[in-house]
Amino acid sequence: MEALISILFHGLAYAMILYIVSVGLSVTMGLMGFVNLAHGVFAMAGGYVTVTLMNTYAVPFGLALLAAFIVMTLVSVVLERTLYARLYGASELEQVLFTIGLIFMSVAIVRFLWGPLPQAIHLPAALSGQLDLGFRSFPMYRSFLIAVGFVLIALLWFGVERTNFGAQLRAAVDNRRMAESIGIDTRRLFSLAFALGSGLAALGGGLGADILAIYPGYATEYLVYFLMVVAIGGLGSLRGPFVAALLLGFGDTACKYLVPELGAFFVFVAMIGLLLWRPAGLFGRV
Amino acid sequence: MSPVDALIRRHRLRAIELLPWVIAVAAYFAFADYLSLGSQILIMILFALSLDLVLGYAGIVTLGHSAFFGVGAYAAGIYAARVSGEPLSGLLVGAIAAAAVGWASGLVILRTQGLALLMLTLAVTALLAEAANKASFITGGADGLQGVDIDPIFGIFRFDLFGRTAYRYCLAVLFLAWLFARRLVYSPFGRSLVGIRENATRMHAVGSPVRRRLIAVYTISASLAGIAGALLAQTTQFVGLTVLGFQRSGEVVIMLVFGGIGRLYGAFVGASLYMIAQDQLAKLDPAFWYFWIGLLLVLLVMFARGGVLGLIDRLLRR
After folding, report:
1. CA A270, CA A266: separation in Å to the nearest integer?
2. Domain segments of chain A: what residues?
3. Domain boundaries, chain B
4. Rounded to two decimals, what is the model's pTM?
């Protein structure tokens, strides 16, 4: 029982990070069919911005996260307009190569600026203790992650389901040509979605800096996990990646807790099974 | 000229196709101090050539080709350490093991396409890397496989300290593999692969067994990649976990793309340029090497689709 609660709790916190980082990827892939392997780079950059602001300039955690979000949103708009936009409609291989090129460049830059070692994040005192819920206590930081995760999910849900922008986005994902022919500017829509998704990834990178260590290998090591969330969840939805992130969070945590000697083995086997059963993901439209 | 005649003409060996072999033999005499790098280059050419069959000809975008390279390396390494140090049977063991993994995984994952296929190729490699890491009682785990001792080839040619035998051995194997690959891509089978790459639906419509063809080429390519891995294990007498890494999968795709995909010689040009540049530039600044590779890749996709050979083609046509 104790073990189960522990797995569920840690798995949920992990799932939140995975979801916050990956949800933007799901939307961009669903909307434009762009295979953006460099999505993890935005999360990594967000993590570095957060950690550097906090450690070097003593900026509070919350403000540093906000700064990471804003900086990476702006950077991604520039990248999208100048580089990504030229490859819409290019072949899958070209998109893969282009984004691998971006990964290699960013990894080299990050290693040059910050060195190869993981960046330790010094959490504020309020987040480093335990949260006592009466029947047992939970680590404060992970409880905070879960709470923030739910707030962000509520905001995302509201944005996509209840606003005009969200309605346009859903229309464009469902049927891009139809959406364009009734006058929705899908290019602008996509730029916005791309920027927001990258900003969210940066936020996730900063928030999760204590779980997914910020180091130059970040963009490649966790890439499989981010892609897994999107591929299993299905492209272009909010719900699919969330379910996938939960499955992955719980599954991975449980495997590492219960059978550490088998490592990530089960997770990969489960993913292969799921993708064979539903190649378009659990909630994907075929 | 009918299409059949055109195909036959293309199949005929042109003089320029002998150029790589002339260079390879000349390099053996000219750069006697760099023969171990030379063997590495020949091995990577073979690996890139195997990828070209899958990626260039059949159009399967994979990020997990190191799976077969790694399986071949481990199979040959373990065979040498546990069973026999005879090199040629070791190559065969590597090829068969890699082909078996290629066939089994191809059977399963080639039903999908797009993102799912990309993910599955990644997952198969990650799974194998994890297995090699955990099964340290047989693979050596993170320390790598030790005790790979290779007997002289045919009992005569001993592997020497200067890498002369290794170079000649790799060159001979690569030459045979090239003959085979060349025969394959100009055969009706090879043409049907190009058809599948260009339009799978239409190939279905004309009655081509698309999935069976894809599995076949995936298996063949895996066995060639396995031979490349086995060569690496035998010539370096060591197998480490990096043979199964994402990095190696990524690098071989990059080499092939630099050279030019779907043209058989892209592997030769790309792998040689990449390995030589890496050897020279990485000495100056190993960390920033990846920056330049990344930049080159972005520029290549933006401006020079078709790689070095594609550029040469365009210049010649002017």
Report:
1. 6
2. 2-120+137-277
3. 20-245
4. 0.87
